[in-house]
Protein backbone atom coordinates (compact mmCIF):
# COMPACT_ATOMS: atom_id res chain seq x y z
CA UNK A 1 0.00 0.00 0.00
CA UNK A 2 1.33 3.44 -0.94
CA UNK A 3 1.08 6.14 1.71
CA UNK A 4 0.18 9.70 0.72
CA UNK A 5 3.22 11.85 0.05
CA UNK A 6 4.24 14.17 2.82
CA UNK A 7 2.51 17.50 2.50
CA UNK A 8 0.01 16.24 -0.08
CA UNK A 9 -3.55 17.41 0.56
CA UNK A 10 -5.98 14.93 2.03
CA UNK A 11 -9.50 14.90 0.73
CA UNK A 12 -12.05 15.10 3.49
CA UNK A 13 -15.60 13.92 3.15
CA UNK A 14 -18.42 15.49 5.11
CA UNK A 15 -19.45 13.25 7.97
CA UNK A 16 -22.77 11.47 7.40
CA UNK A 17 -25.86 12.72 9.18
CA UNK A 18 -26.49 10.78 12.40
CA UNK A 19 -30.12 9.98 13.23
CA UNK A 20 -31.39 8.78 16.60
CA UNK A 21 -34.62 6.77 16.24
CA UNK A 22 -36.61 6.49 19.48
CA UNK A 23 -39.51 4.03 19.21
CA UNK A 24 -40.62 0.82 20.91
CA UNK A 25 -42.20 -0.78 17.80
CA UNK A 26 -39.55 -3.21 16.46
CA UNK A 27 -41.04 -3.44 12.95
CA UNK A 28 -41.17 0.33 12.53
CA UNK A 29 -37.65 0.77 13.89
CA UNK A 30 -36.37 -1.90 11.50
CA UNK A 31 -38.06 -0.20 8.53
CA UNK A 32 -36.65 3.19 9.52
CA UNK A 33 -33.13 1.83 10.01
CA UNK A 34 -33.19 0.08 6.62
CA UNK A 35 -34.47 3.16 4.79
CA UNK A 36 -32.13 5.58 6.54
CA UNK A 37 -29.01 3.45 6.08
CA UNK A 38 -29.92 2.96 2.41
CA UNK A 39 -29.63 6.75 2.09
CA UNK A 40 -26.24 6.88 3.83
CA UNK A 41 -27.45 8.05 7.24
CA UNK A 42 -25.82 6.72 10.39
CA UNK A 43 -28.49 5.42 12.75
CA UNK A 44 -28.71 4.84 16.50
CA UNK A 45 -31.83 3.45 18.15
CA UNK A 46 -33.48 3.48 21.57
CA UNK A 47 -36.67 1.75 22.69
CA UNK A 48 -37.44 3.89 25.75
CA UNK A 49 -36.98 7.41 27.02
CA UNK A 50 -34.21 6.81 29.52
CA UNK A 51 -32.08 4.98 26.97
CA UNK A 52 -32.81 7.67 24.40
CA UNK A 53 -31.56 10.48 26.61
CA UNK A 54 -28.40 8.53 27.42
CA UNK A 55 -27.71 7.67 23.77
CA UNK A 56 -28.36 11.27 22.69
CA UNK A 57 -25.80 12.54 25.21
CA UNK A 58 -23.22 9.93 24.15
CA UNK A 59 -23.70 9.98 20.37
CA UNK A 60 -24.79 13.60 19.74
CA UNK A 61 -27.18 12.95 16.83
CA UNK A 62 -27.82 15.51 14.08
CA UNK A 63 -31.58 14.82 14.15
CA UNK A 64 -33.95 12.84 16.39
CA UNK A 65 -37.00 10.84 15.28
CA UNK A 66 -39.18 10.34 18.36
CA UNK A 67 -42.36 8.36 19.05
CA UNK A 68 -44.41 9.95 21.83
CA UNK A 69 -45.77 6.62 23.12
CA UNK A 70 -42.79 5.17 24.98
CA UNK A 71 -42.99 2.48 27.68
CA UNK A 72 -41.25 4.37 30.49
CA UNK A 73 -42.14 8.03 29.94
CA UNK A 74 -44.12 10.27 27.65
CA UNK A 75 -42.24 11.47 24.60
CA UNK A 76 -42.90 15.08 25.60
CA UNK A 77 -40.69 14.49 28.64
CA UNK A 78 -37.94 13.24 26.34
CA UNK A 79 -38.28 16.43 24.27
CA UNK A 80 -37.96 18.54 27.41
CA UNK A 81 -34.94 16.51 28.51
CA UNK A 82 -33.21 17.04 25.17
CA UNK A 83 -34.07 20.72 25.07
CA UNK A 84 -32.37 21.18 28.43
CA UNK A 85 -29.00 21.02 26.66
CA UNK A 86 -29.45 20.54 22.90
CA UNK A 87 -30.88 22.30 19.85
CA UNK A 88 -30.94 19.07 17.81
CA UNK A 89 -33.93 18.95 15.41
CA UNK A 90 -36.68 16.68 16.78
CA UNK A 91 -39.20 15.05 14.42
CA UNK A 92 -42.11 13.54 16.36
CA UNK A 93 -43.98 10.40 15.29
CA UNK A 94 -47.28 9.64 16.95
CA UNK A 95 -50.58 7.84 16.53
CA UNK A 96 -52.17 10.70 18.48
CA UNK A 97 -54.22 12.78 16.07
CA UNK A 98 -55.57 15.61 18.23
CA UNK A 99 -54.38 19.16 17.66
CA UNK A 100 -53.75 19.56 21.40
CA UNK A 101 -51.25 16.68 21.36
CA UNK A 102 -49.40 18.24 18.44
CA UNK A 103 -49.30 21.65 20.08
CA UNK A 104 -48.03 20.12 23.33
CA UNK A 105 -45.15 18.42 21.51
CA UNK A 106 -44.29 21.55 19.53
CA UNK A 107 -44.55 23.70 22.65
CA UNK A 108 -42.09 21.39 24.42
CA UNK A 109 -39.56 22.00 21.63
CA UNK A 110 -40.28 19.55 18.79
CA UNK A 111 -39.61 20.85 15.28
CA UNK A 112 -42.16 18.85 13.32
CA UNK A 113 -44.91 16.27 13.84
CA UNK A 114 -45.82 13.28 11.66
CA UNK A 115 -48.99 11.32 12.40
CA UNK A 116 -48.98 7.52 12.09
CA UNK A 117 -49.51 5.84 9.70
CA UNK A 118 -47.23 7.83 7.40
CA UNK A 119 -45.51 7.40 4.06
CA UNK A 120 -41.77 6.76 4.26
CA UNK A 121 -41.09 9.31 1.50
CA UNK A 122 -42.92 12.02 3.46
CA UNK A 123 -41.05 11.19 6.65
CA UNK A 124 -37.68 11.28 4.90
CA UNK A 125 -38.54 14.60 3.22
CA UNK A 126 -39.45 16.14 6.57
CA UNK A 127 -36.29 14.74 8.12
CA UNK A 128 -34.17 16.33 5.37
CA UNK A 129 -35.99 19.64 5.88
CA UNK A 130 -35.34 19.52 9.64
CA UNK A 131 -31.63 18.92 9.04
CA UNK A 132 -31.45 21.79 6.51
CA UNK A 133 -33.05 24.19 8.98
CA UNK A 134 -30.30 23.42 11.47
CA UNK A 135 -27.45 24.07 9.02
CA UNK A 136 -25.48 27.37 8.91
CA UNK A 137 -26.66 29.64 6.12
CA UNK A 138 -23.27 31.03 4.99
CA UNK A 139 -21.66 34.43 4.45
CA UNK A 140 -24.89 36.21 3.59
CA UNK A 141 -25.86 35.88 7.26
CA UNK A 142 -23.10 38.30 8.36
CA UNK A 143 -25.47 40.67 10.04
CA UNK A 144 -26.36 41.78 13.56
CA UNK A 145 -29.71 43.22 14.61
CA UNK A 146 -30.02 44.98 17.96
CA UNK A 147 -33.11 45.85 19.99
CA UNK A 148 -33.38 47.26 23.51
CA UNK A 149 -34.02 43.75 24.89
CA UNK A 150 -31.85 41.44 22.77
CA UNK A 151 -29.30 41.17 19.95
CA UNK A 152 -29.55 38.75 17.02
CA UNK A 153 -26.26 37.67 15.41
CA UNK A 154 -27.28 36.04 12.13
CA UNK A 155 -23.72 35.04 11.25
CA UNK A 156 -23.16 33.15 14.50
CA UNK A 157 -26.79 31.98 14.77
CA UNK A 158 -26.92 33.34 18.31
CA UNK A 159 -29.23 35.54 20.34
CA UNK A 160 -28.01 37.50 23.35
CA UNK A 161 -30.34 38.91 25.98
CA UNK A 162 -28.93 40.77 28.94
CA UNK A 163 -25.45 39.36 28.34
CA UNK A 164 -26.64 35.76 28.20
CA UNK A 165 -27.13 33.46 25.23
CA UNK A 166 -30.76 32.54 24.59
CA UNK A 167 -31.21 28.88 23.70
CA UNK A 168 -33.39 28.51 20.59
CA UNK A 169 -34.41 25.35 18.76
CA UNK A 170 -33.53 25.14 15.03
CA UNK A 171 -37.13 25.92 14.09
CA UNK A 172 -37.36 28.86 16.50
CA UNK A 173 -34.13 30.18 15.02
CA UNK A 174 -35.33 29.79 11.42
CA UNK A 175 -38.60 31.58 12.19
CA UNK A 176 -36.71 34.38 13.94
CA UNK A 177 -34.27 34.66 11.03
CA UNK A 178 -37.03 35.02 8.42
CA UNK A 179 -38.75 37.74 10.46
CA UNK A 180 -35.52 39.62 11.23
CA UNK A 181 -34.45 39.58 7.58
CA UNK A 182 -37.79 41.17 6.75
CA UNK A 183 -37.74 43.70 9.60
CA UNK A 184 -40.62 46.15 9.42
CA UNK A 185 -42.44 44.11 6.76
CA UNK A 186 -45.51 41.93 7.11
CA UNK A 187 -44.61 38.29 6.43
CA UNK A 188 -47.70 36.27 5.53
CA UNK A 189 -48.67 33.09 7.34
CA UNK A 190 -48.30 30.92 4.22
CA UNK A 191 -44.90 32.42 3.39
CA UNK A 192 -43.63 31.80 6.92
CA UNK A 193 -44.89 28.21 6.97
CA UNK A 194 -43.35 27.42 3.61
CA UNK A 195 -40.01 29.11 4.34
CA UNK A 196 -39.62 27.56 7.78
CA UNK A 197 -41.28 24.15 7.41
CA UNK A 198 -41.21 23.58 3.65
CA UNK A 199 -43.30 23.92 0.47
CA UNK A 200 -45.86 21.30 1.51
CA UNK A 201 -46.95 23.46 4.46
CA UNK A 202 -49.35 26.35 4.16
CA UNK A 203 -52.29 25.81 6.48
CA UNK A 204 -50.71 24.65 9.77
CA UNK A 205 -51.19 28.03 11.44
CA UNK A 206 -51.11 26.39 14.88
CA UNK A 207 -47.37 25.85 14.29
CA UNK A 208 -46.91 29.60 13.94
CA UNK A 209 -48.99 30.34 17.02
CA UNK A 210 -46.94 27.96 19.15
CA UNK A 211 -43.54 29.10 17.92
CA UNK A 212 -44.33 32.80 18.05
CA UNK A 213 -45.45 32.35 21.65
CA UNK A 214 -42.14 30.64 22.40
CA UNK A 215 -40.10 33.43 20.79
CA UNK A 216 -42.03 36.02 22.75
CA UNK A 217 -41.50 34.17 26.02
CA UNK A 218 -37.78 33.97 25.38
CA UNK A 219 -37.16 37.45 23.93
CA UNK A 220 -39.91 39.93 24.78
CA UNK A 221 -39.81 41.94 28.01
CA UNK A 222 -43.59 41.50 28.29
CA UNK A 223 -44.70 38.52 26.14
CA UNK A 224 -48.38 39.36 26.59
CA UNK A 225 -47.77 42.83 25.10
CA UNK A 226 -45.06 42.22 22.49
CA UNK A 227 -43.05 45.10 21.06
CA UNK A 228 -40.99 43.19 18.53
CA UNK A 229 -43.02 40.21 17.32
CA UNK A 230 -46.28 41.70 16.11
CA UNK A 231 -49.31 39.68 15.01
CA UNK A 232 -51.42 40.95 12.13
CA UNK A 233 -54.60 38.91 12.77
CA UNK A 234 -55.49 36.60 9.91
CA UNK A 235 -52.55 37.85 7.83
CA UNK A 236 -49.14 37.13 9.35
CA UNK A 237 -46.40 38.53 11.57
CA UNK A 238 -43.96 41.42 11.58
CA UNK A 239 -40.68 42.03 13.38
CA UNK A 240 -40.07 45.56 14.67
CA UNK A 241 -36.81 46.76 16.16
From TrEMBL:
CC terms in the record's Gene Ontology section: cytosol; protein-DNA complex
Entry keyword set: Cytoplasm, DNA-binding, Phosphoprotein, Transcription, Transcription regulation, Two-component regulatory system
DNA-binding region of this protein: 142-241
UniProt cross-references to SUPFAM superfamilies, sorted A to Z: CheY-like
Keyword check for Metal-binding: no
Signal peptide: none
Domain OmpR/PhoB-type: 142-241
Residue stretches spanning the membrane: none
One annotated GO molecular function: phosphorelay response regulator activity
The Response regulatory domain, residue ranges: 18-131
Main location per the UniProt record: cytoplasm
Coiled-coil intervals: none
Keyword DNA-binding in annotation: yes
GO biological-process terms attached to the record: positive regulation of DNA-templated transcription
Cellular compartments annotated: Cytoplasm
Record-listed 4-aspartylphosphate modification sites: 67
Function: Member of the two-component regulatory system KdpD/KdpE involved in the regulation of the kdp operon. Upon phosphorylation by KdpD, functions as a transcription regulator by direct binding to promoter regions of target genes to positively regulate their expression.
Protein's UniProt name: Transcriptional regulatory protein KdpE
Biological source species: Streptomyces actuosus
Amino acid sequence: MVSPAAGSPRTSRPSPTRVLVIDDEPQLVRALVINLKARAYEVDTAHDGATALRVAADRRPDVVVLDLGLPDMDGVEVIKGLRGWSRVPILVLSARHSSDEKVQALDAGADDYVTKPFGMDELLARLRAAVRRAEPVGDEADMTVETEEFTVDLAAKKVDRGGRDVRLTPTEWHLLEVLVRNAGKLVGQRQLLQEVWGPSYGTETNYLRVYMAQLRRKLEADPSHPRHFITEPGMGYRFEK
